[in-house]
Recover the amino acids of this structure.
């Protein structure tokens, strides 16, 4: 048995703990509007940092905008070791998810980055993701060129990609260094495996979202049943095993579980100490095909 390394480096110069915090849930229902318990959200974000978390993930479309503002209100001025990642490139016109759309217009992306920096209260954003590779109004390579220019200007420090294909990731790498990629990947869904592999060959960080999910196309009971013996072996929960697996699965992973509960926050962080064996990691990895 072993425990994984406790830190990871983004872009060669930003070192953070292996378990980050996804702040998306600190918004209203369907990620729309303000978080209903404003003071509780402030307290939770401060507890996140007090617990030793040094990486927080957000996006301008969370709220929209309210999530970034809440983070600033809770934590600014930020601790020197805290890295905040945000994203731009989505627009949303209302409560219904059908109003969500991807936009690649250079002026829009530039405005989004500048406004995120203003809302967060920073001169330069540590890690800025293109939130989607689905925008069709502007060629993908032009969108990446816009982010490269923003990096050159100092508006953003490092560039990340969210919800892109392996081909898009490879193309982006020919234009500018990509420091991180985030995708849906967990014990029950392996959709982002191509990006897990791609980042592993370039030195980029892979940040799986919904990292503790065990849903498998309507078969969560099967995944749960396979994880339960491993959980019992370590005296932990199935969800903690699902999170610990990411840390053992590859050394460049940085999962970003989200929660609105201090109890769950502590449980998530405790997963970093679970010494899964090689056989246990292999068993979980083999639960689903990774093509």
């Amino acid at each position: 048995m072993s425990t994984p390394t406790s830190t990871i480096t983004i872009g060669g110069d930003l070192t953070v703990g292996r378990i980050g915090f996804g702040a998306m849930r600190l918004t209203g229902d369907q990620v729309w509007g303000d978080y209903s318990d404003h003071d509780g959200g402030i307290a939770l974000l401060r507890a996140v940092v007090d617990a030793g978390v040094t990486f927080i993930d957000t996006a301008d479309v969370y709220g929209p905008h309210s999530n970034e503002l809440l983070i600033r209100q809770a934590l600014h001025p930020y601790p020197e070791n805290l890295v905040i990642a945000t994203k731009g490139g989505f627009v949303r016109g209302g409560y219904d998810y059908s109003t969500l759309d991807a936009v690649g217009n250079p002026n829009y992306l530039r405005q989004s980055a500048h406004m995120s920096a203003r809302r967060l209260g920073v001169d330069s954003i540590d890690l800025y993701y293109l939130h989607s590779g689905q925008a069709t109004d502007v060629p993908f390579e032009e969108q990446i060129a816009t982010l490269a220019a923003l990096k050159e200007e100092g508006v953003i420090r490092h560039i990340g990609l969210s919800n892109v294909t392996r081909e898009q990731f490879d193309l982006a790498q020919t234009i500018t260094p990509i420091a991180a990629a985030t995708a849906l990947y967990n014990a029950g869904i392996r959709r982002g495996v191509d990006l897990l592999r791609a980042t592993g060959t370039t030195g980029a960080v892979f940040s799986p979202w919904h990292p503790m999910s065990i849903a498998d196309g309507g078969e969560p009971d099967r995944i749960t049943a396979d994880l339960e013996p491993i959980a019992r072996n370590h005296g932990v929960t199935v969800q903690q095993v699902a999170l610990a697996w990411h840390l053992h699965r590859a050394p460049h992973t940085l999962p970003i579980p989200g929660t609105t509960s201090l109890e769950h926050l502590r449980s998530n962080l405790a997963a970093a100490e679970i010494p899964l064996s090689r056989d246990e990691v292999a068993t979980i990895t083999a639960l689903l095909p990774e093509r």
